[in-house]
Amino acid sequence: MECHSEFVEALGNNAIPYRTVARWVAKFQLGRVSTSEEQRSGRPLSVRIDVARAIIEQLMDEDRRWKLRELKRTSGI
């Protein structure tokens, strides 16, 4: 798939998997017109992404040596 090859060329090992690109292509071929997230069922997010990002950035600015478990416990996210 040409578009995946371009991702790999640009991003190397950080490129998204081929199967993900193939899934996106299939959805757009079936008429999807937007890249924004679709409504999902299930429990809604308890924290907005921008708020969570601000909390984590503030904690990381104070001390870059945080471990993931400590960040989770301290931030409540």
Automatic annotation (TrEMBL):
It comes from the Eukaryota. Residues 2-30 form the Mos1 transposase HTH domain. This is HTH_48 domain-containing protein. It comes from Trichonephila clavata.
